[in-house]
């Protein structure tokens, strides 16, 4: 009788997520990854971390990388190096049972060392698009046996993005938006061109990207910024003060509509460009800032 009681007690207090049946999933780099224990998870990449928490596995996360800023609980956890500068020694010392990382994680030699040590490492595609956001949530949901919750998060994004689409169709004008990634030197600016996450967000929110003559992020002349004459300048929150001071002191740039009217918008980088479970609400938030004439309410269960 005592043995039966002990067995029942053990089963009741063993975390359900730790007792996953062994499964094999395909990593974004084509490697088959076997997962049988999710009791000690390390997440690498801001939107990867957000997604794992949104799926209800925050209690199993023991560490995140330095690019992870949401939810706020991450700051009470162990931190491993930034997604593009990871080290195998520091990560393996934390004895994770599963690592879920952005496919931007590097160097590749560190990833190979982690897998060589027998630790399950799943890479997830981080392309900046609506389709990729859906695939990312679904892939992590599958890995954690949380497909139902993943579907909820995906459906919430779909609903919010559909709302944004309806609002875009009602717009008469679309403001020109310049996304500045960084200041180079004292008065040169790296800005977003085509095929960037920033351009995607600007388009989804009912704006027009200021530069469409090049791909990626590029430093452009101040004369070209003046010629583009953006209505709004969009920046990441942690670079707001530096960029605002830069555009205000730079001749030509300080004559644009955005600077003259003080229409410089800032958002948390992971929220704006993470393309994760908060994508829909981020689009609506940006749309609300670009189109104050619209009545937009934003609700999110996460």
Task: List the defining traits of the structure above.
disordered N terminus; five-stranded parallel beta sheet; six-stranded mixed beta sheet; 302 residues; single chain; globular; alpha/beta
What's the layout of helices and strands?
Layout: H1 2-13, E1 23-26, E2 32-35, E3 41-44, H2 46-54, E4 61-65, E5 78-80, H3 88-92, E6 98-102, H4 108-116, E7 120-124, H5 130-143, H6 147-169, E8 176-184, E9 188-192, H7 197-204, E10 208-209, E11 217-220, H8 222-228, E12 232-236, H9 240-249, H10 257-260, E13 264-267, H11 269-273, H12 279-290
Secondary structural class: alpha/beta
Q: How is the main sheet built?
A: 6 strands, mixed
Order of helices and strands, N to C?
Answer: HEEEHEEHEHEHHEEHEEHEHHEHH
Output the radius of gyration. 22 Å
Described by the principal axes of the CA atoms, the overall outline is globular
- Helical fraction: 25-40%
Please count the beta strands (DSSP E, at least 2 residues each): 13
Q: Outline the low-pLDDT stretches.
A: 1-17
Q: How many angstroms does the end-to-end distance come to? A: 45 Å
% residues in beta strands? 15-25%
What does this structure look like?
- Helices cover 39% and strands 20% of the residues.
- It is built from twelve helices and 13 strands.
- Helix 5 packs antiparallel against helix 6 and helix 6 (147-169) runs parallel beside helix 12 (279-290).
- It is an alpha/beta fold and 302 residues long.
- The chain has helices spanning 2-13, 46-54, 88-92, 108-116, 130-143, 147-169, 197-204, 222-228, 240-249, 257-260, 269-273, 279-290; strands at residues 23-26, 32-35, 41-44, 61-65, 78-80, 98-102, 120-124, 176-184, 188-192, 208-209, 217-220, 232-236, 264-267.
- Strands 8, 9, 10, 11, 12 and 13 form a six-stranded mixed beta sheet that branches. A five-stranded parallel beta sheet has the order 5-4-3-6-7, with helices on both faces.
């Amino acid at each position: 009788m005592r043995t039966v009681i002990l067995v029942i007690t053990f089963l009741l207090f063993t975390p359900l997520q730790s007792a996953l049946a062994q499964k094999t999933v395909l990593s974004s780099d084509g490697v088959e990854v076997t997962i049988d224990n999710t009791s000690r998870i390390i997440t690498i990449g801001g939107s990867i971390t957000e997604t794992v928490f949104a799926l209800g596995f925050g209690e199993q996360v023991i560490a995140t990388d330095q690019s992870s800023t949401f939810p706020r609980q991450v700051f009470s956890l162990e931190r491993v190096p930034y997604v593009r500068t990871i080290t195998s020694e520091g990560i393996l010392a934390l004895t994770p049972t599963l690592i879920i990382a952005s496919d931007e994680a590097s160097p590749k030699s560190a990833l190979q060392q982690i897998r060589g040590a027998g630790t399950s490492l799943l890479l997830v595609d981080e392309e900046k698009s609506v389709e990729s956001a859906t695939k990312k949530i679904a892939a992590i949901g599958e890995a954690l046996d949380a497909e139902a919750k993943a579907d909820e998060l995906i459906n919430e994004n779909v609903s919010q993005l559909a709302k944004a689409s309806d609002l875009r169709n009602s717009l008469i004008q679309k403001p020109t938006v310049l996304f500045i990634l960084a200041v180079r030197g004292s008065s040169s600016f790296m800005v977003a061109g085509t095929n960037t996450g920033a351009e995607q967000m600007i388009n989804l929110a009912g704006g027009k990207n200021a530069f469409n003559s090049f791909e990626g992020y590029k430093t452009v002349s101040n004369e070209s910024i003046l010629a583009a004459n953006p209505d709004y300048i969009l920046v990441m929150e942690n670079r707001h003060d530096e960029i605002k001071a830069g555009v205000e002191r730079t001749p030509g740039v300080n004559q644009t509509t955005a600077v003259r009217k003080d229409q410089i918008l800032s958002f948390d980088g992971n929220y704006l460009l993470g393309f994760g479970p908060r994508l829909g609400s981020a689009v609506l938030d940006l749309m609300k800032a670009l189109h104050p004439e619209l009545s937009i309410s934003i609700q999110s269960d996460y």
